[in-house]
Each structure stands twice: as C-alpha cells, then as structure tokens.
Amino acid sequence: MKGINMKKVKKLKEGDTVTIVSLSSGLLGEKYCRHSLEIGLKRLNDMGLRTKFSPNALKGIEFIKNNPQERANDLIWAFKDEDTSMILSAIGGFDTYKTIPYILENKEYLSIIKNTNKIFLGYSDSTINHLMFNMLGISSFYGQSFLPDIAELDSSMLEYSKKAFLSLFKEGKIVYKPSKFWYEERNSFGADQINIPRLAHKEKYGYLSIQGKNKFSGILIGGCLESISELFINEDEIKINQKYNLFTEKTDFKNKILLLETSELKSYAKEIKEMLQKISETGCFNQLTGVIIGKPQNETFFFEYKNLFTKFFSQFPNLSVVYNINIGHAYPKMILQLLSKIEIDIENQTITNFKNQFN
C-alpha cells in the first residue's frame, strides 16, 4: 500500500445505481429468497437509488459455487459499468478466495479496478475481496450486505444499520456510539417472517477496553476473523495468500488498526485462540496500533471471548484493544471505510471514521 496515490471514494447521491453481485454464495438467486430480494430492492429504491444485478448474480447456489471465474467477471463487469456507482455484495459465503487469481492475473481487470472509483460494500467472506482491494491500495467499506441488512424482514431496516448505510450519502466523518439495543439472528427467513421484528435486548456493556489506551487512532484494515484465519489454515487459501500477499508478513501493519469480528459459526474460544495464533505468525500484533473486535452474534460466548482476548493480547502490551463493536455478524451494524482513519474513544464511547482520510 506504500506509495500508492489513493482515490477518494465518491459519496452516493440520489439517482445513483447500486449493482448487486454474488461473489461468495448464490443464495440470492434461489426462488425461496424472492421475497427478501423484493424487500431489499424496494428499500434501495425508497432511498432514491436505482438497482441492477451483475449478469450471474441471480443464477443460484450451484452455478455460483461451480463458476468462480464468472463471479470474478461479474465484479469487473460492475466496475466497468458506467451506470454503477456502488457495488453491493449479496451475502457472504465460504469461497470468494477462488475469484482472486482470475482478477489479479488479468492485467486488463487490474487496470479497470485501479482506474475506477466506486463504493464496494460487503462483509463476512467478502473480507477476502476487501483484502484484495486494500492490497491494491483501493479503499472499500465493511459492515453490511444486501440480504442480511438491506433486506431485513421486519417492516424496516434496523434503525442503527439504516443510519450507517445512509452515511454513504455523506462526506466527512461519521461518529458511532454503541447501539442502545442489539438483536438476535433469526432462526427462519421464510416469507412468514415478513414484518416480524427480531428479538431485541438492551445493550449492557458498550465499547469495552481490553487493554491499552482509552483513545487511539490509525488506518483501518481487516474484517471477519474466520475469513482471515482461513488464509493460514485452508491449504488452497494458504497458496493464494502467499502468492498475492493478501495478509502476510509483507503486509504493512504500521499505524494500522485491525478489525476482527467473529462469524455466525460461533466458534469456541479455543478455536478463536488458534485463529489468533495463526494470524500472529505474520508479526502483525507487534506492529499494529490497535485491534477492534466485534460483538459476537447473539452475544454467544461473550465472556469466554472477553477472557480469551484479555489473556491473548497481554502478550502484546503496546497494543490497544477494544471489544464489543456493532459490526459484522452481530445486529445492528455500523459501516466502516477500510484504509481510512478511525479513532476510538472509550471514555466518550465513540468510534469516528474519517472518510477518505488515508493517513
């Protein structure tokens, strides 16, 4: 990322087109998701946005699973499309890493990405797409995707999540405080759940300091912990990571803040520890300014994780670590711009994202 002249990402405006892509799972193309798709499209239209789909986005689970090259082509198609201002991930999954070689080995594709200024928003498995963009010096946005967030089955988006999405229409900084409520994941996503609210709980803890300074800042990188750790565990992903340096010992971690949020898998604390140990082999925790960690979905293993993080990060006394951030797989969700400046203030319970401020 050093020496790259980064482009400022333009804000959304009324009349802009959002293109939805399926880079991981093809769930959005299944008939049983039709009701969710229609809800999500109406929400985007109600915000004054036009919508379209990349050519293969709605071809279903099996096609998307078996055709990673077409997924890669879809991403580039969205970058090339003159109408598209924002590229929105449909949902996460497990194997978007398979798209990486088709993009990074193609000089034309690289040129298109580097010379096109568009918003990319996704989370979960989209972490791998973010790492690719960020390695290329392209800023992207982490925190939400189409099906889980825009297409929320209740009568409206979760208010905190909606405000975060609407921040994409604004320039300058955005300040997040902890959500007053958190929400459980649904057990069912059928049409019978339309207009049914999620189970809500009052937030008890806010942003929790695990160690280090109560106020610190840096440039944000990272994403889903499980997705990053697979780059060190899955044999195929290890090869791709080492070849393309998505997250390795060659990554520039200086003055960075690493976002780590845990997935819907609700991994045991022992497994989380193993993931952190794998990631630490890059030397990142000796170089980073700080780590911010998402609230676990449904607050599952909340204190087990807290105890683990307290013990694990004590090995790195110069690192500032904060836990229980509203982002990723827990509901509701903020949106943060990767490769831009972020400031965490525990005393005032704020996270400030300075959009398009790259140093």
From TrEMBL:
GO terms for molecular function: hydrolase activity. Pfam families: Peptidase_S66, Peptidase_S66C. It comes from Metamycoplasma canadense. Residues 217-343 form the LD-carboxypeptidase C-terminal domain. Belongs to the peptidase S66 family. Keywords: Hydrolase. This is LD-carboxypeptidase. The keyword Mitochondrion does not apply. Residues 18-143 form the LD-carboxypeptidase N-terminal domain. CDD domains: Peptidase_S66_mccF_like. InterPro entries: Carboxypeptidase_A_C_sf, Class_I_gatase-like, LdcA_N, Peptidase_S66_N, Peptidase_S66C, S66_fam. It comes from the Bacteria. The gene is ldcA.
